[in-house]
TrEMBL record, chains A, B:
The keyword Hydrolase applies. Residues 1-32 form the signal peptide. GO terms for molecular function: peptidase activity. Belongs to the peptidase S46 family. Gene3D superfamilies: Trypsin-like serine proteases (2.40.10.10). Keywords: Aminopeptidase, Hydrolase, Protease, Serine protease, Signal. This is Dipeptidyl-peptidase. It comes from Pseudoxanthomonas daejeonensis. Its EC number is 3.4.14.-. The lineage of its organism: Bacteria, Pseudomonadati, Pseudomonadota, Gammaproteobacteria, Lysobacterales. Pfam families: Peptidase_S46. Catalyzes the removal of dipeptides from the N-terminus of oligopeptides.
Length: 721, 721
């Protein structure tokens, strides 16, 4: 099997002229907008890029450590971009929200009032854990990662990859101020070492009020048309030596290797647009069987189980006002997850994704002349192993995430076991650096636990577990909870009547002994955990063995898929994995359903229309007044005759792309990505060009706000405006 | 003051050529779509009608007792139209819903399954109170109505109009099978005697299942895009002598004087459309002061008071599951009323109606050369009298409509008083023909009353009443409830602890004595009613005196307004009053808000998109299968390449227009009106061409359903299809 990455893009086999013409059409039209490209791929799709309207040299985009892409950074949990020579970073209000919150006090409410630093001395230090990461190295390390793994299988393959990756990271991080990681491309086909400068001193420069930066909040989340000024400006500082440093008044502004220039004009429907950022995870190149499982089992089951937990918690809340308060946040989170799962299911069904991916894979296998069908069948076999225990794994996962005391007990017992090992060999999540997080979780139990609700939640989950076929059940769990609703109820009654883990002091005392690997106090839930954790560890071992096999076998599938895509004239991008990607497309309207059309640009008139004076549609008076005055000047859209706010593109994005800069054909900054539309929730699996859109702040709106509404002329000047 | 109706349309005064050109433009563009025209007005707007695209002779539309308008009938609470020579009546599913329900049994659920009569013998008799009214006479009787009133004022004017109207009706109804009424045009300017044939034997011929006829139900009510097959076919029968008769198996199909022909093709965006029907009530020609009061006081106050009652009832429901059930319907109704009021307020504000009507009236008064400003001021004075007691009247009205026992007591006491008079002189609502309704209301108290909730509702309403200024309060109410929350609470405690009206037998026994004018049983609530009813009667007398003055004075305002409109080149239609009207316009898209456009035609693809399998989006399997087959044939829209469902026009409609036929330029039937859009809720006061739309069933959808989904070829044949 070829491990040479260009094979992914090189057409193979003989193709007729007609087919080639047809495939070129496919490539430039039907599929032109799908793709989260690695910068190194862009020269290979230069023709498409130019045809789509890009005026620059695609070759200049190939190196993500050179301009302009080295102006694009990871910021907090999203993306950001340098927009001045003195280290101004533009990102979303919601990405920088922690920074704003950290600097807010009852007497100086920056969330509600926004913030403008009058000068550099007035810039406010971010929370110390906020980071901006500048990618300074991106090197293929496939041979180092896979060297020891080759010839192995299962758990051994997994461990070899894991050990090699950890070694690469640890060697790389010997350099001060640098954070490293190993990125897995094409599901184990290729590995890259990512070196990133870790900027630790960020300061708040400009934030609009929440009623602009988060106008519409949850109500408008995932919605289009949108009217949100979701942007904030930070500035990165480094030590006097130019190296990353923690906050110090002596630090100096970071001089980035390059920065983006805000465009002096704006886009309109059909305009070329391009976006760079750090998308988190997609599943586009999973097998047809995985698509079918997602639609036919995973998502419907998640909806069903979430519904049952929502019902249990709501019922408890009706009977008990205190429980209602304690579980408000967990309930909200379950409802969000339920909504996401239902939306993804709806989208995948609307796009007929299972059918289309199935047909695509059948065609791919028919086209595959390599005769290695047996190896592909082996991949299917490993996936089937995971499917065989999927319901159990879902239920036991929820047992951990949806309980408070039981999770505390299981965490403490696992920590006790892991603490006996050297720190670097402990399971992730139980290392020294994780202790603060564990302590925080144990402390917040107090604000989230009600005995009756936890028992009801566990009754729902474990009751369902009890009804699983024998092959999915575990002797440890059957021993603990029996096989009938009556035994389960009796077990939970006994456990929760006897446990003292509801007492914070008891939990923290247990943490003190667990972290030293010493025996835990006597408690029924801790005694239960001592019986269940070995089963959890066994399942984890089985999972890692399966993951090792998948790491070993998926590259073949990817290779066959790449050959098929090459035959179609469609280069293959790797699924998103948190590394820097580029997508290109255009401003495009959306027909979300019969007889409804959404224009791709919104205007300030929509703010006035949505404004109710009540959160989340409480546009601030200065904004409403400025809209009423109509004093838009150079930032107004000539064709619309008014000020634009947000725009919509068909760019390929997913979570992690928040704050991604959107560029025009000349590479100038025209927008800031901040959301996608509800119809695109399913795009992490399937890109449907009819429905996939991304939502951006129009930079003309940002400029207008900074010019006329909450003026910051010195910041605009610094950005060359 | 001129009473000659043509004055309403005749331009007066000298107008510059420029102004005339400008006004002509106004008339054909900005205002072309507003107007619920009396058929007699259509020849006067013939030029506009032709310019809009009407291909027929406007003069042929002038007489509502001739073809084609005599094919348009009142049906139940809405409108219908004859569509065959043998008396087939097409109306909405929701207008004929009572007929369908009346014929449904658990074993034969016509609501869920729909109904197709295999032949005439299979047609099912409607509920005996369902009526179809065919207008056979429409004659001006202004002189007869106003003859005795002239020279009088106030209550005497009111009584003179009332007596004359009742005499006209009673003389007219001497003819068997005819129902008569007197219609008041232009607010007392003109009166018409309406003679209508009262068809009493209606039979169900064709109804789609509820999941087509009411697809979307409350969720889609007032919404566009829409996908509802809201139509039903009935047949009118008469006695063998051709005269209206109650149901009899010997009756024969009614032969209408004319019927409409369904078009063989369908409309598209921009197509001319025209609609005839019986709109109920509009307020377009009210004074600027009345507009201001509606927006600044009436609607906000209604929202506020409804909110407070909703809060009271919901709070009670949280504490008491039985109360929640008993008040579910009242709560739903309050919420609907609240939503309507808030929607109307939002719409009037969005349209800036107060400002625009105010400016219009100022211009009108400036243009008015008649020097009768003092008389117009007198009208304003009468309106101000009503405004001075508006909050009291709102609260006392709600005290009646939102209570159960107190309303029962007040009704019984009033009936006792009225029953002592000869039947024809009793107050409307307390005559012999009203007794069944009163008895029904007294009976249903059992299913709608909870003591604690009624007391809480009255505490909210009367507590607010207690805070009114002295001038609005009534000595009888102050004596009964005191002036403080404490006295009110004590009074309600005593009244509801002591009353036995919660017992149905007691209420019905009281009805038996009240209907004979005899003394009522001893009961604290009845004793209270004996004190309060005289105050209610006094307020009613004051209201009638004011209404008499309004009847006397509004015609002057209307005359000045008509002169102003004539000067503008805009004929004036009378506000809707339940008489036959015609409006014309075209299929038009809607931009309800920033960046959103709704196309004016929906397709069956929208049904598939909306379908969830759950009520109200549970499209029936035969429909979904037929859509999936795509077998649309001649009923498909050529341009869209699929089957249309509903369409949207800018026609001027209001409640009562349900079931109105929509005609094309050739006068053929292309649609059936059934709803309007949410943005148009405020159109009863102000027609805003940006937002006012009407929603229709596309006759191609009806034909397709009857051809291919639930076939009824014999009915289609009868309709000439």
């Amino acid at each position: 099997m070829t491990k040479n990455p260009p094979a992914i893009f090189r057409p193979r086999g003989r193709v007729s002229v007609v087919a080639l013409a047809c495939l070129a059409a496919l490539a430039t039209h039907a599929q032109a907008d799908e793709g989260m490209w690695m910068p190194s791929q862009l020269p290979q799709i230069a023709a498409q890029l130019r045809e789509a309207g890009y005026a620059g040299d695609p070759a200049a985009l190939a190196d993500l450590t050179s301009a302009p892409l080295n102006a694009v950074v990871r910021a907090g949990g999203g993306t950001g971009a340098f927009v001045s020579a003195d280290g101004l970073v533009l990102t979303n209000h919601h990405v920088a929200f922690g920074v704003i919150q950290y600097n807010s006090t009852p007497g100086r409410n920056l969330i509600d009032n926004g913030f403008i630093a009058g000068d550099r001395a007035g810039e406010l230090p971010a929370n110390p854990d906020f980071r901006v990461l500048v990618t300074v190295g991106f090197d293929r390390v496939t041979d180092q990662v896979l060297g020891a793994a080759r010839g192995k299988s299962g758990r051994a393959y997994y461990d070899a990859v894991d050990v090699a990756s950890k070694r690469i990271v640890s060697e790389c991080e010997r350099e001060a101020g640098v954070r490293c990681s190993v990125a897995n491309m094409y599901y184990g086909t290729d590995f890259y070492r990512v070196r990133q400068l870790e900027l630790r001193d960020l300061r708040l420069v400009y934030a609009p009020p929440r009623s602009i930066g988060n106008f519409g909040d949850e109500t408008d989340n995932f919605m289009w048309p949108r009217h949100t000024g979701d942007f904030t400006l930070l500035r990165a500082y480094v030590g006097a030596d130019g190296k990353p440093a923690a906050f110090s008044p002596d630090n100096v502004p970071y001089q980035p290797p390059s920065h983006l220039q805000v465009a002096s004009d704006g886009p309109q429907e059909g305009s070329f647009a391009m976006l760079a950022g750090y998308p988190g995870i997609t599943y586009r190149h999973r097998t047809a069987a995985e698509f079918a499982e997602q639609v036919e089992w995973t998502l419907p089951t998640r909806v069903e189980v979430f519904d049952s937990l929502i019902g249990v918690i709501e019922q408890a809340g009706r009977e008990n006002a205190q429980a209602r308060t304690l579980y408000a946040s967990q309930l909200q989170s379950l409802k969000n997850n339920r909504k996401r799962a239902a939306g993804e299911l709806e989208g995948l069904r609307r796009s007929d994704a299972v059918q289309l991916r199935g047909a695509d894979e059948r065609d791919m296998l028919q086209h595959n002349a390599r005769g290695d069908r047996r190896e592909l069948d082996a991949l299917a076999g490993v996936l089937a192993q995971a499917s065989a225990v999927r319901e159990r794994d879902l239920l036991l996962g929820l047992m951990m995430s949806q309980s408070q005391l039981l999770r505390s007990a299981l965490t403490l017992e696992r920590l006790r076991i892991e603490a006996a090992k050297p720190d670097e060999t402990r399971e992730a999540g139980y290392q020294a650096r994780d202790l603060a997080l564990i302590e925080g979780t144990l402390k917040q139990v107090q604000r989230r636990y009600d005995r009756a609700v936890e028992k009801a939640v566990l009754t729902a989950l474990l009751g369902r577990y009890q009804r699983l076929p024998d092959a999915q059940r575990l002797p440890e769990f059957d021993a603990a909870f029996g096989r009938t609703p009556a035994t389960l109820a009796a077990a939970l009654d006994t456990l929760y009547a006897g446990t003292t883990l509801g007492d914070e002091a008891v939990r923290l005392a247990a943490l003190a002994t667990a972290r030293e690997g010493r025996a835990l106090p006597v408690d029924p839930l801790l005694a239960l955990a001592a019986k269940l954790v070995p089963a959890q560890v066994r399942l984890e071992d089985e999972r890692k063995a399966r993951e090792g096999e998948l790491l070993r076998q998926r590259p073949l599938y990817m290779d066959v898929l790449a050959a098929w895509r090459a035959h179609q004239g469609r280069p293959l991008y790797p699924d998103a994995n948190g590394t820097l990607r580029v997508s290109y497309g255009r401003l495009e309207s959306l027909q979300p359903r019969d007889a409804v059309t959404y224009a791709p640009v919104t205007t300030v008139q929509g703010i006035t229309q949505k404004n109710t004076g009540q959160v989340p549609f409480d546009a601030p008076r200065p904004l409403l007044d400025a809209i009423a005055r109509g004093d838009f000047g150079a930032t107004a859209d000539a064709a619309l005759g008014t000020q634009t706010v947000n725009f919509l593109t068909n760019l390929d994005t997913t979570g992690g792309n928040s704050g991604s800069p959107v560029l025009n054909a000349r590479g100038e900054l025209i927008g800031l990505n901040f959301d996608s539309n509800w119809e695109a929730v399913s795009a992490s699996w399937w890109f449907d060009p009819r429905y996939k859109r991304a939502v951006h702040v129009d930079m003309r709106y940002m400029r207008w706000l900074m010019e006329k509404v909450y003026p910051a002329p010195h910041v605009l000047r610094e950005m060359g405006l």
